[in-house]
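Troubleshooting entry. The earlier prediction with S-adenosylmethionine gave an output that would not parse, so I re-checked the input for stray whitespace and re-submitted. Clean input:
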Amino acid sequence: MSSTEIAARVQALGPWFHNLDLNGVATAPSHFLGDYPAVKWRRFADAIPRDLACKSVLDIGCNAGFYAMQMKERGAARVLGLDSDEEYLAQARFAAEVNELDIEFRRMSVYDVGALGERFDIVLFMGVFYHLRHPLLALDLIHEHVAGDLLVFQSMQRGSRDVCSVKENYDFWTTDMFDHAGYPKMHFVEHKYADDWTNWWIPNRAGVEAMLRSAGFTIAVHPEEEVYICRRDARPYAAGPVYPSRGEAS
Ligand SMILES: C[S@@+](CC[C@H](N)C(=O)[O-])C[C@H]1O[C@@H](n2cnc3c(N)ncnc32)[C@H](O)[C@@H]1O
């Protein structure tokens, strides 16, 4: 395809969130975060195995496929990108075609990953968490159904970067820890944040780390402020709340 043809398709498929370089044609050259997500990727690319031969990768909330394509370029045997938005998926399919990368893209919500019936060596869950009304449910479902070994997680964070050490338990009358900036917190966005009504829950750093652990992911590396590379582990608590608590959590 000539540059003129690519530019015309890029224009027709826009607007783009991912700034991709498609044979010299930039898809989102005026992105408010700069050359995004390439600038972010450069800050954690070395923390992910260079050689993904024989590995399967699931990219949840793949958008135009920037990360899915990076994984395929590292030799992943199978890459599946999911997104709830058909227009972003059309961009991803076009970009993969231009780059001659064999990647499957499917319209599916993170809440439906159980239907895949398959675990993946690497699951990417980047930039989706704070767009969800039920973020912890999504993490639980990823753990239960699709996470095989590594989870690459990223979320916008707001609030303190401090992380308090949290005790195993507090009595009913102890409340001061909730006022500490480094206590795990989520900020609920009732209306909009950054002009985006799809931003619902924005955690602080302690909140991200606590929720990952609570969903059964052990943080192995934290190569970039918002990025965590985790190993799937046993969940510390049983799924589903029981009140009042009866015996040990399992
Ligand atoms: C901020 S973009 C992040 C894109 C990419 N993962 C990245 O990190 O650059 C959020 C993406 O998540 C998708 N998304 C939002 N809710 C979703 C859901 N419930 N299931 C799957 N994808 C979702 C959006 O359509 C969008 O493409």
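This one parsed fine. DSSP finds six helices and eleven strands in the chain.
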